[in-house]
User: Which sequence fits this backbone?
């Protein structure tokens, strides 16, 4: 998009100015000759000026030659007419601070009406139906009247003694036309303000705050130059309202510079221009404070407006130099800000020219001009911000794509490394499995060798078996370890079933010590519970020792009571409990050699972090408790 987008707005501006100009020309059609006289010393009675017509002159002098501090009397003759008996006229004027009207019937030379109006006049002193810039006169058109106007202007400018008498209907049509233009422009400003506010709420992009402040401040400034603002907020103190109005312009200027600093990132682009912008903002604030105090206390707006010319020249010079210097350093969205700044400079220049050429009469055109320019500038700024956000989105998406590609490449390399490591681990696992199989095979062979040696020793020394039962105990323990090793190999070295281990141990010991099955074995509650590898050998040896001790020592041959061994296994949430009980002779006739087995049971229980309780009064009663959480 190019800066000539501003052209439609400038064309619309020319349309508005032409409409307002044509309205001003139309209202000159019914103006009678106005006679002007400067107030005589110590004479302020309207009748004095009515009876002394000779002091009034037909105005031939330039408007600027009127004394800015003087008081003037105007004399307007209203002739009779035969069209209607009564007619309503509107007597209007522009931007005068105090105006007093006296209407005199020429036949009786008597004042029949008196009114007050003016920009600085409190609303309570203005007659209903009138306003600050016009009087409504309902007169008998068959008579002739003289209208005397006392003008006291205190704003520091030469008074604009432009008075217009016109039919009320024509006046209302002209006012309606101007009101429609202002309503359209103010409605556009309000819509833009709502759009900017909602956009900021969604995006939280800070330049929207400065644009919102800029548009709102200058919109309020253009509204404050109209009498409706004074009537709404400062009806009884209009001087304060007129003094506050320029503050909105200062606020809009400062927000414009803040937008420049933020959007251009001026602190990084050029520290000199950044410091100059801050200095200009401080200068604007200082002048705003000075102007407010000076204008409110003296009502002299002429001096403050002349200082505005200097500030306007500073703004134009700074903005022109800034964008000429930074043009090649900024991107396309930031260049749109330059287009907006150009429009801002044009607006300042136009207002300065209007003030120089027309003084206070320029206030007829300045509000509409300001509204048009700020709408144009705001739209350009919004385009710039939208382009900036779009550019940031594209840059963000591009950076995301680059990061995704980099991450994908990293993941691809990681997958390659992971696959290589996985292959290496599989090879190592296979090698370890081979080693474990070899180890298990050797353990099995060694245990089998020990077991076979015991068997050979027992077969070759039949008489020694009864005297030395240690060989038999050693064989049972070796067999238990062989059994555990066999089950682990069968289950591929992970875990083994406790009930399967117990049944195998019982079966072997029963075959070894009680082949005729004289002793009853009661096994209950053996759960389908898998025990970890590292405790399986110890737990198997404990059960082996329990049953071996019972077989060897609990039931002597002379005992007539039927022998019984009870082995119970209970499982709770966090505990494994094993109970072994026999109805043997107990500890009173305990063979001394069994103490080694009990000591071994205690050591093995402690090794796998369990607790054992032994009761030996009516047969041996063992209670084991293992916490499963300690087997990790």
Assistant:
């Amino acid at each position: 998009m190019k800066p000539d987008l501003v052209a439609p707005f400038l064309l619309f501006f020319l349309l508005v100015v032409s409409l307002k100009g044509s309205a001003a020309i139309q209202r000159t059609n019914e103006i009678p000759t106005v006679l002007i006289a400067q107030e005589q010393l110590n004479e302020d009675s309207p009748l004095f000026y009515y009876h002394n017509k000779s002091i009034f002159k037909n105005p031939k002098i330039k408007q600027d030659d009127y004394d800015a501090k003087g008081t003037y009397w105007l004399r307007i003759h209203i002739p009779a007419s035969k069209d209607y008996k009564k007619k309503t006229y509107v007597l209007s004027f522009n931007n005068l601070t105090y105006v007093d009207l006296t209407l005199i019937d020429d036949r009786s030379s008597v004042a029949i009406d008196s009114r007050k109006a003016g920009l600085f006049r409190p609303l309570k002193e203005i007659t209903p139906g009138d306003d600050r810039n016009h009087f409504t006169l309902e007169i008998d058109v068959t008579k002739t009247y003289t209208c005397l106007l006392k003008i006291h202007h205190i704003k520091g400018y030469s008074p604009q003694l432009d008075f217009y008498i016109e039919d009320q209907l024509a006046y209302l049509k002209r006012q309606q036309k101007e009101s429609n233009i202002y309503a359209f422009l103010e409605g556009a400003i309000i819509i833009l303000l709502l759009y900017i506010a909602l956009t900021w709420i969604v995006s939280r992009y800070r330049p929207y705050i400065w644009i919102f402040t800029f548009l709102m401040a200058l919109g309020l400034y253009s509204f404050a130059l109209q009498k409706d603002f004074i009537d709404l907020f400062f009806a009884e103190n209009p001087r304060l309202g007129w003094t506050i109005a320029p503050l909105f312009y200062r606020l809009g200027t400062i927000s414009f510079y803040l937008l420049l600093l933020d959007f251009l990132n001026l602190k990084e682009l050029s520290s000199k221009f950044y410091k100059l912008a801050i200095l200009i903002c401080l200068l604007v604030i200082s002048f705003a404070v000075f102007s407010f105090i000076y204008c409110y206390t003296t009502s002299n707006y002429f001096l403050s407006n002349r200082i505005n010319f200097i500030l306007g020249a500073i703004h134009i010079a700074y903005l022109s130099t800034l964008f000429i210097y930074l043009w090649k350093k900024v991107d396309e969205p930031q260049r749109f800000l330059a287009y907006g700044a150009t429009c801002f400079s044009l607006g300042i220049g136009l207002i300065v020219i209007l003030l120089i050429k027309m003084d206070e009469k320029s206030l007829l055109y300045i509000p509409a001009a300001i509204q048009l320019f700020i709408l144009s500038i705001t739209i350009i700024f919004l385009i710039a911000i939208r382009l900036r956000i779009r550019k940031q989105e594209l840059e963000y998406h591009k950076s995301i794509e680059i990061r995704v590609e980099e991450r994908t490449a990293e993941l691809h390399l990681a997958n390659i490394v992971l696959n290589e490591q996985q292959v290496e681990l599989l090879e190592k696992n296979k090698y370890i499995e081979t080693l474990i199989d070899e180890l298990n095979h050797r353990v099995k062979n060694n245990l089998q060798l020990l077991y076979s040696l015991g068997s050979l020793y027992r077969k070759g020394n039949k008489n020694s078996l009864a005297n030395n039962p240690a060989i038999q105990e050693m064989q049972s323990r070796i067999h238990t370890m062989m059994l555990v090793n066999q089950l682990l190999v069968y289950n591929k070295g992970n875990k083994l079933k406790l009930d399967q281990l117990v049944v195998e141990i019982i079966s072997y010991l029963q075959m070894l010590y009680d082949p005729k099955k004289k002793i009853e074995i009661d096994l209950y509650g053996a759960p389908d519970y898998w025990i970890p590898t590292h405790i399986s050998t110890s737990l198997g040896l404990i059960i082996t020792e329990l049953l071996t001790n019972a077989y060897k020592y609990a039931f002597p041959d002379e005992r007539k009571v039927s022998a019984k061994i009870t082995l119970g296994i209970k499982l709770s949430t966090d505990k494994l409990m094993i109970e072994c009980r026999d109805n043997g002779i107990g500890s009173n006739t305990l063979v001394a050699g069994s103490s080694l087995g009990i000591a071994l049971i205690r050591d093995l229980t402690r090794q796998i972090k369990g607790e054992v309780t032994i009761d030996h009064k009516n047969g041996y009663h063992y209670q084991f408790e293992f916490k499963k959480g300690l087997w990790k």
Remarks:
- The first strand starts at residue 34 and ends at 38.
